[in-house]
Amino acid sequence: MTDTAPVALLTGAARRLGAATANTLHNAGYRVIIHYRSSREAAEELVRTLNARRPDSAVAIAANLTIMSDLRRLAREAVAQWGRLDALVNNASSFYPTPVDNATEDDWDDLIGSNLKAPFFLAQAVAPALRQQRGAIVTMADIHAERPLKEHTIYCAAKAGQVMLTQSLARELAPEVRVNGIAPGAILWPEQASESSAQSKQAILDRVPLERAGEPNDIADTVLFLLSKAPYVTGQIIAVDGGRTLT
Description:
By secondary structure, the chain is an alpha/beta fold.
C-alpha cells in the first residue's frame, strides 16, 4: 500500500450496503475507514478481512453521528489516519415508521439527525481535506425523497432535505469537491421488515420494470463510479431502482 492510495470514509459501513461498498472500494485500491455506531464485531471482522488482503488498508472507528463531539472526533481521526481523505460516503441512516398519531420528538431528532444533520456537519468537518485532494462525497438518498412512504413522514422529509443538501453542497464545494447522491430502490429489505409476507414483497417488485430486486453491488458499483469515474458529474441523484420511479 502506497501513501498515494486514496482514502474513503464510509459511515454505517459495518454491514449490509455499507460493507458491500467498502469491499468494492477496497478492491478498487482505496484504503477504507469503516465507521460504525454499535456493530463493533461486524466492523472489526470486516477490517480484519480487508487487512488480510492488503495490510494497513482498513480501520474501524466508532461514533454516534447524532452527537456533535463524536462526529467531529470521527472526522479528525479519519483525516489523521493516513493524512488524507479523498472520499466521504454518507451511508448511515435511521429508518422506521413514524405514524403521525404517535411520532415523538425523539423520533424526529434521530431521523433528521442521522439522515440530514450528520451528513451536513460531517461534510463541513472534512471539506478542507477533501478540497486538498479534489475529492468527492456520495450520499445515500432514497426514492422516497420524492414519493412519500406511508407512515414514514419524518424519514421521507429528512431524505427530501438530504437531496437538496446534496445539490447545495455541490454548488458550494465546487470546483474542488464533487457531491452526488444515490437513490436505491428495492435492494435489501429493511431489517425490521424481515417478517413481511412474500406477498407484500412481491407487490413491491411488481412495480419494478426490471421485475426483480437489486443487489448490494448495484449500489456499491455506482458509488465507485461517482467517486472515481465521473469527474464531470456533480449535484446529481442517481436512482438505482430497476426503473421503479418510472411507474
